[in-house]
Amino acid sequence: MLNKNEAVIESKDVIIGNPEAKVTIMEFIDYESRKCAEANEIVKKIMADFAANIKLNFRHFPLMHIHQKALKAAEAAVAAAQEGKFLEMHEMLFANQKHLGIISLKSYAKEIGISNKSFLNNLVNGKYGVYVQDDLKYGIRLGVKGVPAFFVNGKKLEGEITEESLKESINKALEQ
């Protein structure tokens, strides 16, 4: 359980893959976005193909004007990260995009083994909302307008992201 004195593990601190990898992929996501769910499948393949050579960092960019539940879903992912369950919650949210209400989020937390009894309270009270807002502001500063948005070693990828285009960007970064 997170004490008031404990530091919050923010999205920027959640690294998936090899923490020592030469290539960093940062993806801005919205859990209600169909395109983000499709991109997530590509990312899983990329992680399998380049496991030792890349690290991945998901940042939240909820498009609240069209996705009313994306903010709370992102907060649930940040809350899950506090117990080392970010990736499990991330996958659960994409698998259940049509059901991202607060009660569903609580049930997903239980299903993936989150033991924090304050999980629901934290969601209702927006405890992790500021961290999602920080991601959103950071994305805006980087020029993100829509999701999914990918950056490879800080360079924004333009156009539609395919498995091939992402692999090409990673291979270029590995050559540098």
The CATH architecture term is 3-Layer(aba) Sandwich
Give the SSE string: EEHEHHHHHEEH
Structural class given helices, strands, pairing? Answer: alpha+beta
Number of domains: 1
Strand order of the largest sheet: 1-3-2-4-5
The whole-number mean of residue pLDDT values reads: 94
What is the CATH H-level superfamily?
A: Glutaredoxin
In CATH's first tier, which class applies?
A: Alpha Beta
Layout of secondary structure:
Blueprint: E1 16-17, E2 23-29, H1 34-49, E3 54-60, H2 70-81, H3 86-95, H4 102-111, H5 119-124, H6 129-141, E4 149-152, E5 155-156, H7 163-175
Gist?
By secondary structure, the protein is α+β, with helices and mostly antiparallel strands.
Describe the structure.
The chain contains 7 helices and 5 strands. By secondary structure, it is of the alpha+beta class. The protein has one domain: Glutaredoxin (3-Layer(aba) Sandwich), CATH 3.40.30. The protein has a 5-stranded mixed sheet with strand order 1-3-2-4-5. Helix 2 packs antiparallel against helix 3 and helix 2 (70-81) packs parallel to helix 4. The chain is globular and about 45 Å long. It starts with 15 loop residues before the first strand and ends with a helix. The relative contact order is 0.20.
